[in-house]
Amino acid sequence: MPKLWNETIDAHRHAVREAILNAAAELIEGGGLRSVTMSQLAERAGIGRATLYKYFPDAEAVLSAWHERQVAAHLHQLAEAAHRPGAAAQRLAAVATAYADLARQGHGGELAALLHQGEHVGHAERHLTQLLEGLIADGARDGDLRDNVPPAELAAYCLHALTAASSLPSRAAVERLVAVTLDGLRPVP
Question: At the topology level of CATH, where does 1-57 sit?
């Protein structure tokens, strides 16, 4: 087949897959993770059910692909915050705040727990830990963050502490959590 034909087919497949995942996002936003059915997905995406089944065997597979896309987007957002101009401690604060905000927006429940078991989540956690570890090491070299605890330990501490944002009632509570977490990274007098 000609190259142009293959590129056109690939672009079409990508567009259909994105339409399905966008439909899933809309359904989740409207009614939560459990509200997603194959019939609703096909209707919302503007495709037939037979076409939908060519891309995904069931709603769980769609939700898993949607979640993978969400995690990748979140990781990209956090990496952008980490690479903005400014001191490492400031960039760390931006990443911590963004991560806590994302944790607070999370979808709870049994299905969410199932989605978080995928390999993509482990990969994202490792990447985020390395990102935090690098910022902490840079901040310690600058004298803005403590240097008496290995950066890897401090990165793990931050991630675990900031995950508590998932149960906080307000944005103000998230800001307090981030402040307390970052205070734990300040140099010891």
Answer: Arc Repressor Mutant, subunit A (1.10.10)
State pTM to two decimals: 0.81
CA neighbours within 13 Å on the CB side: how many for 49? 6
Summarised one tens digit per residue, pLDDT across range 83-133 is 999 999 999 999 999 999 988 887 555 445 555 667 777 888 899 999 999
Domain 58-189 superfamily per CATH: Tetracycline Repressor, domain 2 (1.10.357.10)
What residues contact 120, with CB distance under 8 A and at least 6 apart? Answer: 67, 68, 71, 72
Are 92 and 81 in contact by the 8 Å Cβ rule? The answer is: no
d(CA 128, CA 137): 14
